[in-house]
């Protein structure tokens, strides 16, 4: 069910060689990264420079090093043209004519911080970026990485509504890291290549709102005891904190998030290109539950979301997790909406 983008784009690049990338006209897409000089933005931009579907890569940040990041990446022998933009005055030019805009901008988590602690700073960043997108590229697909994703997607949606250009199919919360981690952990347990593991992760993108649907995992995790299933679930839910603690104040999950963001963006581009059956989990406007936004498998198409695939049948434990998640998710959503209103 899940996308062939899970065949790593970096591996494809190295195996095939940069000169073998296709540059046919139907594959020419401009991707803009907002927050490109940051801990997530730099590895994400590196991987997007290697993506054969990216013809122009626009890198934007407030940081003085942003033009240098663009210059550095421009020396890679792949076809994508790299342009650097620094500061609010250059933001409209960075956004203009973009097909996909990926937003990892914001402050990272530090030890002791929850995603909720990030809200005040990051909410203003996403609001202002989305306002500029609404004016200069209202048809772009917006992929939001900035945490807390549960609140940032509603913020972007409300800004687009205020500008009269809202299309729920074009605003996507990137939850791919939860799936990547789930595949990694199940792969370790089963002793298999994690890229062969297929598992949906539904709900949201923080703490108890992250619901790995282990009952639908293929191959099934080689653990039967309920207590071990609960331990694995908890590890997936708290994996971000695991990284923050391991970095001892030196940052959060930046490299794995950059990787996950590149996988997600590549799938969005494949959908824009007209490829069929491109599926990733994403946090989107939804009527599946009584939460206005919800993450689950989505089929991408030429306008972003082509079809919401739902989340199938849950077992009793997963139903319990969903019941726990929904109040928190709805609170996060309301907080985002009220920030704009």
Automatic annotation (TrEMBL):
One of its GO terms (cellular component) is mitochondrion. Residues 30-173 form the Lactate/malate dehydrogenase N-terminal domain. Residues 175-340 form the Lactate/malate dehydrogenase C-terminal domain. CDD domains: MDH_glyoxysomal_mitochondrial. Its EC number is 1.1.1.37. One of its GO terms (molecular function) is L-malate dehydrogenase (NAD+) activity. Keywords: NAD, Oxidoreductase, Tricarboxylic acid cycle. Substrate binds at residues 109, 115, 147, 181. NAD(+) binds at residues 35-41, 61, 122, 145-147, 257. It catalyses: (S)-malate + NAD(+) = oxaloacetate + NADH + H(+). It is an enzyme of class 1 (oxidoreductase). One of its GO terms (biological process) is malate metabolic process. InterPro entries: L-lactate/malate_DH, Lactate/malate_DH_C, Lactate/malate_DH_N, Lactate_DH/Glyco_Ohase_4_C, Malate_DH_AS, Malate_DH_type1, NAD(P)-bd_dom_sf. The active site is at 205 (proton acceptor). Belongs to the LDH/MDH superfamily. MDH type 1 family. Homodimer. This is Malate dehydrogenase.
